[in-house]
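Practice problem 4.
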């Protein structure tokens, strides 16, 4: 996988003050992949040290008022040219900078205030639809014993749990909110494993309960709340789905977004307010662009075909009618299934970084499909699925 990385985050003394902003999480990440280091301000041949600069509207000015917009644009364009030859998947740039900032930059008052907006270089990269993040994202997603990665597995994908070097096991029935009477359906096992996969701290939940079994949305998300209480900041959901012919084909996919057609929402429950300040949660970026991009980069490196698309979550348990499949196709849906949406809503509301992976096992609405055929198909792709998840864990 290839990534662009701000030079100053790797310890190069190229900042305005003559220093660097060495970041351990970025250096660790950079050591695991092919990197191209960038510094648009050095590319513009600005001196080191130089006066601090901030964005004022569409301009960039030094603290003494000198307009250096053209220099910043020239430097950004030069770095963009190098970027195109390199074909990176991700850019990791220094937060808040008028060149490299992502989503928030200093407001031009030189008081430390921030405004919404991107640095000049970031704007160019985003126009190319690249995933651009700051060092803050890498620090946030980095797993540790205190912050293991949660992995929730669906039908036929539960054997990933066998990769875990276990430290302890947790019976689901000991988890707050999980229904005592719930028993696993075929292919599921109701015991979480805390441990490591390839040295990365994880908590694996190798099965789940569903709305279609008569459980409430609050019960369905009890595993997500448990993972959050354990300290997990990243959560990977894996589910088997049907594919909407014309929008995707059977095989592995990464979820970019969802449409909740279950008629249920875990946040519409007064008990949820124990964990949340407000139930009115924006869902714009529920599926982390950064984690999706990592998955795509890993898949490319490993030669695994990984599509992406929107997931529609239905109540089930009946499969889709022909009219429903036609409707989902017109909605731009690629995958349809009976899990995941409530869990993603809960995880996003709790501030967790979500990666949604799916194995599309069959055409949606196929009358020959049943739980057993889905499980068999899922197991055929188990090897690629495992390699993909391990590859993502390695890069976190
Ligand atoms: Fe760092 Fe970017 Fe500023 Fe260069 S332009 S010093 S890489 S923040």
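Answer key:
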């Amino acid at each position: 996988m290839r990534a662009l990385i701000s030079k100053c985050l790797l310890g190069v003394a190229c900042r305005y003050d003559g220093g660097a902003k060495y970041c351990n999480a970025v250096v660790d990440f950079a050591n695991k992949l092919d990197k191209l280091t960038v510094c648009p301000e050095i590319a513009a041949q600005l001196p080191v040290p130089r006066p601090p600069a901030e964005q004022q509207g569409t301009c960039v000015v030094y603290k003494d008022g000198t307009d250096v917009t053209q220099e910043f644009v020239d430097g950004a364009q030069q770095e963009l040219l190098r970027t195109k030859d390199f074909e990176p998947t991700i850019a990791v740039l220094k937060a808040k900078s008028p060149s490299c900032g992502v989503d928030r930059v200093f407001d031009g008052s030189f008081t430390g205030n921030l405004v919404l907006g991107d640095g000049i270089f970031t704007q160019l990269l985003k126009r190319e639809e690249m995933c651009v993040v700051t060092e803050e994202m890498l620090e946030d997603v980095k797993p540790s014993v205190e912050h293991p990665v949660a992995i929730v597995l669906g039908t036929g994908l539960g054997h990933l749990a066998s990769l875990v070097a276990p430290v302890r096991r947790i019976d689901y029935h000991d988890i707050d909110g999980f229904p005592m009477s719930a028993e696993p359906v075929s292919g599921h096992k109701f015991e979480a494993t805390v441990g490591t996969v390839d040295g990365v701290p994880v908590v694996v939940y190798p099965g789940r309960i569903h709305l279609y079994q008569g459980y409430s949305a609050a019960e369905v998300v009890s595993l997500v709340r448990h993972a959050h209480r354990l300290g997990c900041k990243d959560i990977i959901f894996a589910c088997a789905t049907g594919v909407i012919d014309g929008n995707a084909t059977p095989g592995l996919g990464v979820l970019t977004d969802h449409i909740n057609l279950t008629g249920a929402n875990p946040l519409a429950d007064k008990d949820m307010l124990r964990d949340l300040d407000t139930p009115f949660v924006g869902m714009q970026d529920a599926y982390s662009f950064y984690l999706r991009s990592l998955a795509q980069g890993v898949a490319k490196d490993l030669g695994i075909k990984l599509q992406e698309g929107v997931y529609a979550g239905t109540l089930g348990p009946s499969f889709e009618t022909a009219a429903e499949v036609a409707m989902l196709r017109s909605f731009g849906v690629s995958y349809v299934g009976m899990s995941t949406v409530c869990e993603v809503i809960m995880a996003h509301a709790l501030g967790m970084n979500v990666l949604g992976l799916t194995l599309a096992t069959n055409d949606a609405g196929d009358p020959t499909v049943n739980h057993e055929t889905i499980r068999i198909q899922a197991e055929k792709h188990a090897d690629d699925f495992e390699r993909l998840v391990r590859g993502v864990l390695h890069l976190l």
